[in-house]
Amino acid sequence: MITISNLTKSFGTFDAVKSVDIEVPQGAFLVLVGPSGCGKSTMLRMLAGLETPTAGTISFAGNTVSDGDRGWTIEPAERNTGLVFQSYALWPHMTVSGNVEWPLKVGKMPAAERKTRVAEVLKLLGIEKLAARYPNEISGGQQQRVAIARMIAPRPGILLFDEPLSNLDAKLRVEMRTELLRVHRATGATSIYVTHDQVEAMTMASHVAVLKDGEVEQFGTPQDLVAEPRTAFVATFVGTPPANLIPVAPQGVATTFDGNVLPINLNLSGPAQAMYRPETLGVSAEPTPKSLALEFAEASPVAGRIMITGTKGDMRLTAVVDSAPKFTPGDTVHFTVPETPDALFAPNGERMP
Amino acid sequence: MITISNLTKSFGTFDAVKSVDIEVPQGAFLVLVGPSGCGKSTMLRMLAGLETPTAGTISFAGNTVSDGDRGWTIEPAERNTGLVFQSYALWPHMTVSGNVEWPLKVGKMPAAERKTRVAEVLKLLGIEKLAARYPNEISGGQQQRVAIARMIAPRPGILLFDEPLSNLDAKLRVEMRTELLRVHRATGATSIYVTHDQVEAMTMASHVAVLKDGEVEQFGTPQDLVAEPRTAFVATFVGTPPANLIPVAPQGVATTFDGNVLPINLNLSGPAQAMYRPETLGVSAEPTPKSLALEFAEASPVAGRIMITGTKGDMRLTAVVDSAPKFTPGDTVHFTVPETPDALFAPNGERMP
Amino acid sequence: MASISPSAGQKRRFSLPQGLPLKIGVLIAIGLLIAAPLLRILFETLAPNSISAWNDVVLSPLSRNLLWIPLGNTMILGLGVATGCVLIGGFLAWLVVMTDIPFRRTIGLMATLPFMIPSFATALAWGSLFRNGRVGGQTGFLEGLGLSIPDWLSWGMTPTLIVLTAHYYSLAFTVIAAALATINSDLVEAAQMTGAKRGRIFMGIILPVALPAIVSGASLTFAGAVSNFAAPALLGLPVRMQTMATRLFGMIEIGQSARGYVIAILLIAVSALFLWFGNKIISGRRSYATITGKGGRAKRFTLGTAKYPLFAAAALICLLTTVVPVVILIASSVAPSSSALFSNWTLHYWIGASTPTIAQGQAGVFYNPFIVSATTTTISLGLVVAVTGSILGLMIAFTLARYRTGFLSGTINQLSFLPLLVPGIAFGAAYIALFGAPMGPFPALYGTFALLVIAGTAYLVPFAVQTGRAVIQQVSGDLDESARLTGAGFFRRMTAITVPLASRGIAAGALIIFVKIVRDLSLVVLLFTPTTPVLSVLAYRYASEGFTQFANAITVVILVISIAATLLANRLQTKSQPWLKN
Amino acid sequence: QDLDAMSAEELLPLAQEEGTVTVYSFTSRIAAVEAAFEAAYPGIDMIGYDASSTEQIARLQAEAAAGIATADVIYISDAPVVLTQLLDAGLIEAYVPPRVDGLLSDEFKSPLLSQRLSTKVLMYNEEAHPDGAPVDNLWALTTEDWAGRVIMVDPLQRGDYLDLMVEFVLRADEMAAAYEAHFGAPIELDAGVDNAGLQFITDLFENDLVLVSSTDDVNAAIGSIGQSNPPIGFTSYSDRRDNEDEGWALQVANEVEPSNGIVFPALLALSTNTQNPAAARLAIDFLMGDDSETGGAGFAPFYVAGDWATRSDIAPHPDAVPLEDFIGWSIDPVATAEIRQEIADQILILQ
Ligand SMILES: Nc1ncnc2c1ncn2[C@@H]1O[C@H](COP(=O)(O)OP(=O)(O)OP(=O)(O)O)[C@@H](O)[C@H]1O
Ligand SMILES: Nc1ncnc2c1ncn2[C@@H]1O[C@H](COP(=O)(O)OP(=O)(O)OP(=O)(O)O)[C@@H](O)[C@H]1O
Ligand SMILES: [Fe+3]
Ligand SMILES: [Mg+2]
Ligand SMILES: [Mg+2]
């Protein structure tokens, strides 16, 4: 079990992580998601012991390993954690197999066993043919896989992944995530995994933490998050595609949607944000009484359907429909809004009952 | 117009790119997709003039800029191309704004204009607050955006992007691709864009080239590729999720599907590979006459539906269904196969008529 | 290995900021090795009978000629030479390391040589071309052609500046080349993409990312220039140009060592100021990490049409600064008369048997019974000090590169630089006084090889620190971090990660140390028991007897040893960095 | 017993018991002495340390500070510095072997034993001036004729040249007389200059005296053959012996008013804390030469033209002017040491 309490990390005056409290059960697979720069990597680095927290503590199975308040931290070497760096951090002077083997050497694994293990993980990641190359002689995605191989080879007790599959193609990514899950399950290790890929988050996670500006917005199972986003931010952040938010305000029995009055009564007492999942929105080339006109942005086939996005000022709506007229950039798309939103959030982002 | 003919690049005995022929019309937006290590970055680097081809030529608007056969290439400086490096290649000794500004200085843009332009692109990429930081003081996704900003600031005539959005969160990625498309359209520049994100490929591309092992598997519009994959490889590579392939062989009037005889007559004369789009497959917890039993791998909500993946040996099937029973890892999932496949491919991968 | 928690026994709590133990360790080491002797020198000048020297030097009617004018000259020399060296050395380093210039290896080798050629030879080479009739004796080649060379070109500041630059640029070259070798080519490529021309990329990207190396190169060449005695003495004295170094030497020589030490201390103080400033530049938030964990490609710049002009420029520099002095040096070891270097050559001084008519019957160096043993001693001393100096230097460099800010780092940085500026004789004397006698359980080291090694290490460690730090700063921190996560300890990481990545810089430092100690006289002569003399002492013996040819022959032997060491280092270099192959 | 009074024969057994003797020598010729010594006294190992006077002094002082003593015998020049920094400081002591006591004049016995004499004197190019020295009075060097053409080593970089300068001051009266002899009028001193010697130094510097850094440079400048108008300057008389090898035409100016320069001693002394007192004395005895014409093996390395043995019984070298015909001033190290720094300061201001 990993207990993170009140964890804070500041760089100068900038707080990258702010009073984070999370409990990760033994063997859990925690996925951290959040916008670029929200502090995910910083979290992982603190868990790995590479960064001393400014405040707060981290404990592994009840033993405090980092104590920001007292300014100490146990050496990374003694934490039995492994980290796939976002920057890979491959050692340029070692070949691919050298990179994977060195940690095993440090761990005093016997030579014969080491050889087998290296071959095994390289095979697992599909890079066995590159064993003799140097990191600057392989492609970006190959480098990323070497970084993963290097980390999992010594079978650390806690696996930390910082966007480990970001540079892989979709096919490989699907395979790799299955493999990583297998590694995770086989060792019973607790894993913490940063990703921007929603599908990855949904399929791999036993728990998800959504971070924003260094704070945890919501922590729960992936299903919870999609079904019951606690804030407007979470709603727009999770899901493939994520939900839409439309600023609404009461106007008599009708409601203004992003300024347009539509004959829909939401029973509001004041301005709010209405959440609509993409599959609940409709799309047409012609206006309807309950539609909003946006500028067509893009269309793409997804899961046998069509995902259509329109923008208007800051607002961006995505609908997933079975079929739709063919739009070209610059066209106006009319998004039809259903009677009831999937959720309502206060203007400050909190969920309304 | 960019004409690539017979382009080859070898590293020692290894051919990273093999006789590639492509014509990219002026103002097109070509997306390169392909598995990790297939030569995408190498292609871009040759287009940028950073790598001299081993054979073949590249010409821009009729002027040959690289000639591998004669071993010469025009300086990158004289090509008016911009490249977002997969590794970002930010200059560590310059601040974020310094990184963006330097190319403008080189381009002799007047100081006042430069300032405006830097502020403008930083704003475009949402990193205006980081202007005074050094690259080692910002997150991975922020670095990636700086790399983009630096490339687009001087408005080069040909834009080359090497997985420019891979480290951004989904939300930002959607916004950024809209912005990049806007930049592309505004300047009329020809763009070549490497990505592993299918949605990106589908929404941004005017043309897509699918690479495999350094060769072009298929070149066409995104719609073509999804609708008419020319090879089995392309079929399994494009689409969200990509299509499934099942090895089939005639067995009297029936057919073996991955070894299992199903009462479906495909009129085959020999073994082949049948392609099924995920949305045509069904899923059930119980076997049906026309189903294949696989081990459940993962499930994830996509576009209001559920995407379910099962594996059996090397075969991996993905179905997208409106609803499905709840499986847990280790369960058996039965994928029901429709009467007619969406396409048939010969065992060597070629499409059968 | 499913357990999450480290067992309680593994727990180690650090209430100290990271890096503090390392800093303190290093500080203790250099405190003992460097600060103690320096303080001793300082106290010597504060003794009751020498304290007046401070007044004499700083605040008396003598100050003008004793301190201020020499100080002015010294600063001009230091800054001028450092600038020149960084530009020339940087230029050559760029050509050799980053471009496809023809004969790269040869140019690279040639560019490391000038430092190995004694600066007096370079000064003589200048004289053989530009000397005019002011002093009398033989005039230079150009006057021989009938040209009239003005005094300012023959003597004084201009020739001294040029000669010292020609001598020291190879230091800058070595350091900068080591740093440039580590630059991922994608940084340069990104600059090429902007349309920037070569010169622009060089000035805007390459030099700035190699800034730590430039600062190191500038510091080393600055220190070299301000402490060099031979060139200003040969070229400056005839027009009464004095530098701190000539003054300091003179004061010690005429028995006014307290004044000499005061001058040395002031020189140290002034230089420390520059060093502090240089360090300031590179210790900000800026990063110089050019070796990153995303293996960038190793690729060379193609020079295209500029190839041959640039090659010509490089070849000319190398030729003038290496070939000419070496030819002069060799000629002076085979010419019976120092005033006619190119006539009546004889190999007597090399292979001749003892003839009573020449040099009081000295046999040629090859028949000299001392030469073999001296060569062995010299080489072993060089090797040992190169190794110890590199190890200590590496520790210091690592500390400085990783923990760039803070008072302790500043102190370490300054201290580890100072020995460059201390006169060897003062340093050696302080060493005898401090470590000569038995100390507690340690036996008296005086007269032992060990003392010489320790003193040599302390004396020359600045080279290893400067070259090492420049390169280590370019190793991205996450490479070390990812090694920390594997559980590897400090030394393990050092040897497996940092050293190989910085190997070129470390090798460069070791090479410079080797060359320095092999050539050094003042420290060696004071500390060593010359029953088996080293080569430099041998050369000194001959020179002091007026057997210049023999002295020069030995200098040539030293040069050959140095070149051999360079070749060896180069070889190891290429072998040890296979990932940089092209 | 009193070692100082013992003869070499008496010292020998004691010395052999000690077994070794270490000599700090300012000249590498000690190597030849070592061989000869070990041949003469088998069983005693002589160890020669070859270091310049300055280095010897630094070393002795540092050793003293560390409380160790490795030297037994000091063979050194730079008498004035040695007297103040070593003898007065008690680091070395005088010893005169009884055997040679009677063969030395007093000035060579105290305060320290002088083994031989060297010079810094005015030399000229005899190829350019076959009829003898171009000057007959030192003051001629301060005239227009010799502007920029008098050369010497910077007296602030070499002790023996500083001693030469000091001697001019110590001999101010002779300098004054020579001035009058040369210019026909009594000397008028500049403001702030209080004697003729200093006036000479001042005038010399003002006459664009050329300074270089080593005696060899001076030799080459003055002596190189093939010069039409060679400079003149101060250097070692003994360097004339290299004329043939080096292509020089150095000759001493021995008919110059009031003198041509200085004659100064090379000193031999005992280290105060010597561990090998008998062997040390034996070594000094050996270095003083045997009773033959040329001083024998112990003195052989020093029996060169232009250097003179202090022992009256060693014959002058046949190729050189004998000491008694030589007009150079013999320095008085004690008197020199007294005003040496002061003169150095004056010169410093002149530069
Ligand atoms: N210097 C080299 N020596 C040998 N092979 C190399 C070298 N550089 C690249 N390669 C190989 O060339 C192939 C193409 O590399 P490239 O970087 O173009 O791949 P990519 O398509 O961009 O892959 P990714 O999506 O992983 O970035 C890879 O298989 C790589 O291993
Ligand atoms: N040295 C530093 N000084 C100041 N701010 C810093 C420093 N290092 C990181 N930051 C800031 O801390 C924040 C968190 O960074 P972190 O790398 O944890 O982000 P992240 O969530 O991993 O983002 P990404 O998804 O882009 O990788 C970022 O906004 C970054 O700009
Ligand atoms: Fe001996
Ligand atoms: Mg990150
Ligand atoms: Mg790539």
TrEMBL record, chains A, B:
<dbReference type="GO" id="GO:0055052">
    <property type="term" value="C:ATP-binding cassette (ABC) transporter complex, substrate-binding subunit-containing"/>
</dbReference>
<dbReference type="Pfam" id="PF00005">
    <property type="entry name" value="ABC_tran"/>
</dbReference>
<dbReference type="GO" id="GO:0015408">
    <property type="term" value="F:ABC-type ferric iron transporter activity"/>
</dbReference>
<dbReference type="InterPro" id="IPR047641">
    <property type="entry name" value="ABC_transpr_MalK/UgpC-like"/>
</dbReference>
<keyword id="KW-0472">Membrane</keyword>
<dbReference type="GO" id="GO:0016887">
    <property type="term" value="F:ATP hydrolysis activity"/>
</dbReference>
<dbReference type="InterPro" id="IPR008995">
    <property type="entry name" value="Mo/tungstate-bd_C_term_dom"/>
</dbReference>
<comment type="similarity">
    <text>Belongs to the ABC transporter superfamily.</text>
</comment>
<keyword id="KW-0067">ATP-binding</keyword>
<keyword id="KW-0813">Transport</keyword>
<keyword id="KW-1003">Cell membrane</keyword>
<protein>
    <submittedName>
        <fullName>Carbohydrate ABC transporter ATP-binding protein, CUT1 family</fullName>
    </submittedName>
</protein>
<keyword id="KW-0547">Nucleotide-binding</keyword>
<dbReference type="InterPro" id="IPR015853">
    <property type="entry name" value="ABC_transpr_FbpC"/>
</dbReference>
<dbReference type="InterPro" id="IPR003439">
    <property type="entry name" value="ABC_transporter-like_ATP-bd"/>
</dbReference>
<dbReference type="InterPro" id="IPR017871">
    <property type="entry name" value="ABC_transporter-like_CS"/>
</dbReference>
<dbReference type="InterPro" id="IPR003593">
    <property type="entry name" value="AAA+_ATPase"/>
</dbReference>
<dbReference type="InterPro" id="IPR027417">
    <property type="entry name" value="P-loop_NTPase"/>
</dbReference>
<dbReference type="GO" id="GO:0005524">
    <property type="term" value="F:ATP binding"/>
</dbReference>
<feature type="domain" description="ABC transporter">
    <location>
        <begin position="2"/>
        <end position="238"/>
    </location>
</feature>
UniProtKB/TrEMBL annotation, chain C:
<feature type="transmembrane region" description="Helical">
    <location>
        <begin position="310"/>
        <end position="335"/>
    </location>
</feature>
<dbReference type="InterPro" id="IPR000515">
    <property type="entry name" value="MetI-like"/>
</dbReference>
<feature type="transmembrane region" description="Helical">
    <location>
        <begin position="379"/>
        <end position="403"/>
    </location>
</feature>
<dbReference type="Pfam" id="PF00528">
    <property type="entry name" value="BPD_transp_1"/>
</dbReference>
<keyword id="KW-0997">Cell inner membrane</keyword>
<protein>
    <submittedName>
        <fullName>Iron(III) transport system permease protein</fullName>
    </submittedName>
</protein>
<feature type="transmembrane region" description="Helical">
    <location>
        <begin position="521"/>
        <end position="543"/>
    </location>
</feature>
<feature type="transmembrane region" description="Helical">
    <location>
        <begin position="161"/>
        <end position="181"/>
    </location>
</feature>
<keyword id="KW-0813">Transport</keyword>
<feature type="transmembrane region" description="Helical">
    <location>
        <begin position="550"/>
        <end position="569"/>
    </location>
</feature>
<feature type="transmembrane region" description="Helical">
    <location>
        <begin position="494"/>
        <end position="515"/>
    </location>
</feature>
<keyword id="KW-1003">Cell membrane</keyword>
<dbReference type="InterPro" id="IPR035906">
    <property type="entry name" value="MetI-like_sf"/>
</dbReference>
<feature type="transmembrane region" description="Helical">
    <location>
        <begin position="75"/>
        <end position="97"/>
    </location>
</feature>
<feature type="domain" description="ABC transmembrane type-1">
    <location>
        <begin position="71"/>
        <end position="278"/>
    </location>
</feature>
<keyword id="KW-1133">Transmembrane helix</keyword>
<keyword id="KW-0812">Transmembrane</keyword>
<dbReference type="GO" id="GO:0005886">
    <property type="term" value="C:plasma membrane"/>
</dbReference>
<dbReference type="GO" id="GO:0055085">
    <property type="term" value="P:transmembrane transport"/>
</dbReference>
<feature type="transmembrane region" description="Helical">
    <location>
        <begin position="443"/>
        <end position="465"/>
    </location>
</feature>
<feature type="transmembrane region" description="Helical">
    <location>
        <begin position="201"/>
        <end position="226"/>
    </location>
</feature>
<feature type="transmembrane region" description="Helical">
    <location>
        <begin position="415"/>
        <end position="437"/>
    </location>
</feature>
